[in-house]
Inverse folding.
């Protein structure tokens, strides 16, 4: 079993009662604040800090009969089903993080718990739909001060290699990206969160539009024998002479999106943009006359 899932099971074990999805996300968030190496990453979401990976793990653990999921009018409740105890399988520092968090929040209501996270970690409340109901004016202002808003036009490129979905999304949020343009030929990934439907749903849940433009992708069979920087340069030179010219209309579409949304990001897999065709797409847009387009690799 993944170690991070033992963290989830141990929280439910030590709280020893069914916990709502929202409360469990907040408890897990507070536990990770006490960890040097965090078991889960989080994004600002409609009810505050949220981990897509943790949510997926809860679903998986339920399918494997480690947990039960009980949907009620006041929320979805989770509780352990397994007789095996996982808390004592954790590192001492993670045990301590869970116990300290339990002692801090065990007497709080759901709203009090949410309020606690908003006050102490205002960035994760910037997308909240309920912050104005839970926070006082000065507290709410601290949340608003965490929001990044830009009006200048900028084109970004970002690869998801080596990133969790949450860390990836936070890069977009911090740079106030309005629309993510996926330029993979086939928007499929073995990495959780980065196949087309998963990525689109995650983006749109935090108010970032998503569009897939496969016409600007590169066939996977052309990437099978790339071993040196020279191989990559040869591939991208061919790509710029063929695909980009043949699909000029889709470059025009990207320019239209830039004019409409101002803050646009191109995405593919590779961490290093020099090893990815998205750099060729960005270069083609950057070279459009009289554009003076600002270009940033995240």
């Amino acid at each position: 079993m993944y170690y991070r899932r033992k963290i989830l099971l141990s929280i439910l074990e030590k709280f020893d009662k069914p916990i709502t999805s929202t409360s469990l996300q907040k408890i897990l968030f507070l536990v990770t604040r006490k960890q040097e190496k965090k078991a889960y990453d989080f994004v600002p979401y409609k009810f505050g800090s949220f981990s897509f990976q943790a949510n997926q793990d809860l679903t998986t653990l339920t399918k494997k009969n480690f947990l039960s999921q009980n949907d009620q009018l006041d929320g979805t409740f989770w509780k352990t089903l397994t007789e095996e105890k996982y808390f004592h399988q954790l590192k001492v520092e993670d045990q301590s993080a869970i116990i300290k968090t339990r002692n801090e929040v065990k007497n709080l209501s759901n709203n009090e718990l949410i309020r606690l996270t908003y006050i102490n970690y205002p960035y994760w409340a910037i997308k909240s739909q309920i912050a104005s109901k839970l926070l006082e004016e000065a507290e709410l202002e601290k949340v608003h001060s965490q929001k990044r808003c830009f009006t200048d036009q900028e084109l970004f490129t970002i690869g998801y290699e080596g990133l969790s979905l949450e860390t990836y999304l936070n890069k977009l949020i911090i740079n106030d990206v309005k629309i993510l343009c996926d330029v993979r030929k086939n928007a499929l990934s073995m990495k959780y969160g980065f196949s087309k439907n998963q990525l689109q749903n995650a983006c749109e849940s935090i108010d970032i539009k998503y569009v897939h433009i496969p016409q600007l992708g590169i066939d996977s069979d052309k990437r099978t024998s790339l071993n040196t920087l020279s191989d990559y340069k040869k591939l991208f030179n061919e790509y710029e002479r063929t695909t980009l010219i043949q699909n000029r209309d889709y470059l025009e579409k990207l320019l239209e999106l830039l004019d409409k949304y101002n803050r646009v990001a191109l995405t593919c897999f590779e961490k290093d943009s020099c090893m990815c065709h998205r750099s060729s797409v960005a270069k083609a847009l950057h070279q459009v006359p009289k554009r003076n387009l600002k270009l940033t690799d995240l």
Observations:
- Residues 92-105 form the longest helix (14 residues).
- DSSP finds 13 helices and ten strands in the chain.
- The CA atoms of residues 73 and 206 lie 24 Å apart.
